[in-house]
Amino acid sequence: MRNLLEEFHCDHGLRKPTILGVREHVFTGSVSSLASFMSNQEASFVTLGQRVLANPLKVRMHYGHPDVFDRIFHITRGGISKASRIINISEDIFAGFNSTLRQGNITHHEYVQVGKGRDVGLNQIALFEGKIAGGNGEQVLSRDVYRLGQLFDFFRMMSFYVTTVGFYCCTMLTVLTVYFFLYGKTYLALSGVGEAIQDRADILQNTALDAALNTQFLFQIGVFTAVPMILGFVLEHGILMAVVSFITMQLQLCSVFFTFSLGTRTHYFGRTILHGGARYHATGRGFVVRHIKFSENYRIYSRSHFVKGLEVVLLLVVFLAYGYNKGGALSYILLSISSWFMALSWLFAPYLFNPSGFEWQKTVEDFREWTNWLLYRGGIGVKGEESWEAWWDEELAHIRTLRGRILETILSLRFFVFQYGIVYKLQLTGPDTSFTVYLLSWSVLAVLFLLFQVFTFSQKASVNFQLVLRLIQSISFLLVLAGLAVAVVLTDLSVVDIFACILAFVPTGWGILSIAVAWRPLIKKLHLWKSVRSLARLYDAGMGMFIFVPIAIFSWFPFVSTFQTRLLFNQAFSRGLEISLILAGNNPNTGL
């Protein structure tokens, strides 16, 4: 430490150092595969990354690491911390901004190493990355970044960009590229333009156009976020150890983790850009290696990963059903395997990396607890962990401004593309392409909404005529079944058309719901908020069941849980976990 403090008097360029940076050693990497991924990723940044940032790029800031500050320099130039807990939520890097803007010099030294524990559970890691991504979104909106961009020379400005907000901008653009690609393919499939262009390319023997239409993603986008970590392995341990470590991490499903992290960063960064109001997420930094309940995972990842993952799945299913592939099934697989991997990673990674996530007793208990949470109506003082309604209100809190409501409305319009395209592909409509078909589909949707209102009518408001209400609901249900049977027999409506209508109406309903919650004050004035809330509960129940059913199926097989434990944790912890399960017997509430 004495030698480190002497660095304040050494020559490090034009100015004396104001912050002395040191490297770290993350010692929690041996706990589990997740902890290993996080520690390796962190190690590449706190060693190789900061070494390059300090020299020659000269854009190293303070990142919450064990750096040593020149106290006199900082307290006489505006202080170390900033006042706002929203825009300055990443208070550590603003200390670096403050030092650099006031002509300070931040260095990095390798001969001192400080041990540090990182998050070891997926929820901790996701909340931490969400905080960092939200903080970067606020940095984009801050004066400090604007001033640094104005004052840096070109090379320092570009280096500063790519090592701070630029990384998150590129991450978001990567995910948006996948969305644009899939929506473009869906448009080509539903409009028939794709097949027409392919036929034209075949007739004219236009190989360039043919190659553009059959562009294939052969690499998974999430893997590229691990490139700095691999380079760090090469420099620190050599090429052979780097290859062995990379293969080991692939066997431990590191690609799933990095793809999942891609969605975390994109969601929180994008939401902060749209609405502002980044929040601090307390991760606890504890040694948390325990079973996380299904409902807790659902609350954390529902809007950030599950909704987006199901949207990607829907796009891929539509393209599979209506798209034109010259190469057949193989072409579709090569075209969509990367997107399928991303969608499935977003949907199931929280449960794949959940200790005892496929243990049958805990699965049953999780389902019971999730249904209780979903159906509990809540009230004053009830927290989101106890009631779905309270949690849903918390999830809508970020939509506050007129600008945010308009942007949410514009973004939600994409969900209406499905219905507009699919209704013209039904056997019932045939070759008819008039706008009347689309209007009739909206009338069918209105009838479905009225039926939903009938079946979800509040029991408290109908105490005096419960029998009449149940009779009406029963008659309505029978009429719907009879109407479908008659339509299938007497018209061209087929069973495939019914599933296609579901594929069309589900995203339309979500689009209507998204617009309704964006304009929450107006919907409340129209006395439609209870209906919107009931529809939202139905969608959350459907999404939860879509995710839960595969987990329950895999939980039937005992070897899946054993394989997961061996995959995720080190040998000593795996043995202890297996012994604890044996001792627990049939008690689902015991232990991890």
UniProtKB/TrEMBL annotation:
One of its GO terms (biological process) is (1->3)-beta-D-glucan biosynthetic process. Keywords: Membrane, Transmembrane, Transmembrane helix. It comes from the Eukaryota. GO terms for cellular component: 1,3-beta-D-glucan synthase complex; plasma membrane. The keyword Transmembrane helix applies. One of its GO terms (molecular function) is 1,3-beta-D-glucan synthase activity. The keyword tRNA processing does not apply. The chain crosses the membrane at residues 160-182, 239-262, 306-324, 330-353, 406-423, 435-455, 467-490, 496-517, 538-559. Pfam families: Glucan_synthase. Residues 18-496 form the Glycosyl transferase domain. This is Putative Callose synthase 9.
